[in-house]
Automatic annotation (TrEMBL):
Pfam families: PhyH
Protein name as catalogued: Phytanoyl-CoA dioxygenase domain-containing protein 1
Essential cofactor(s): Fe cation
Domain of life: Eukaryota
Database matches in InterPro entries: Phytyl_CoA_dOase-like
GO molecular function: metal ion binding
Gene3D superfamilies tied to this protein: q2cbj1_9rhob like domain (2.60.120.620)
UniProt xrefs under PANTHER family: PHYTANOYL-COA DIOXYGENASE DOMAIN CONTAINING 1 (PTHR20883), PHYTANOYL-COA DIOXYGENASE DOMAIN-CONTAINING PROTEIN 1 (PTHR20883:SF15)
Family in the record: Belongs to the PhyH family.
Signal peptide (from-to): none
Membrane-traversing stretches: none
Organism of derivation: Penicillium frequentans
Keyword vocabulary terms for this entry: Iron, Metal-binding
Amino acid sequence: MTGLTEAQVASFHENGYLVLPDYLSQTEINDVLTEANTLLHNFDLDTHPLTQFTTGDDDTTDHVGDDYFLESGDKIRFFFEKDAFSTSPDPTTGRATLLKPKNLAVNKIGHSLHTLSPPFKSISLNDRNAAIAKSLGFIDPRVLQSMLICKQPSIGGAVPSHQDSEFLYTDPPSAVGWWYALQDAGPGNGTLGMIKGSHKGAKGGHIKRRFVRKTGASGTEFIVNEGPALPKGMEEEKVSEPSEDDLEILEVKAGSLVLIHGNVLHKSEKNTSERSRYAYTFHVIEGTEGWEYDQRNWLQPPKGGFSKLYQ
């Protein structure tokens, strides 16, 4: 496995993302979609806490913060779309009422598909991805926070502009996202929107806030980042804030891999179409000495640590 070319590495560092078409074979796509559909149909709704997933950027809405979410780092758990529920609970049980079948109401499945699901593990912990990580300069890459993101037809929620290193902070920042399109993603069904170059110091790509566990209380919150805001080797320059003029709406075919720099701003719109937009994503951080994974991050390492990509 040869990893990325010099031109691909240069493009990633220039733009903050890189699209690799046809990265997955049709067999690999079919295998993970079959697994996804099995998981979505077979989980037990009666014992589920009906946890919804929200972004937490709305001051009137708490982010997912209960134990079901916070203890999902080494499990396979299911999180629902906010718009999948009736505004009134069931009068008999007092539980929220789904407006759609459960398999069409889930926002995402997470957060350890890469260790617990053989089809997802196969496309995560492999030599191809290890070669890419080496191309990007990783010494001891560790895989964490794997998710199937469903973007359900008509209700798949928007995700506002954010940086992945806000959620998986290392000192200094090191996160890179692996985002696989399992179905075609385009402007009509909530595809990725990337703000080109917004990861750079000159574009204001500093990590200014962090998503952490609350101290002395359950739940999560955003706090001001007081640690390093840029990865090692990234130059501090005169800052100019990124502009929406730099926004590129991606057209990504099924089987493509999108690499996403942890400091780049990216987002997606609500899926208003009748087409789902399944994507699988996980993140890689530097695990070697000199990069510290923060103990307040919402996701904490399982026993034995995060998965090594170099075996």
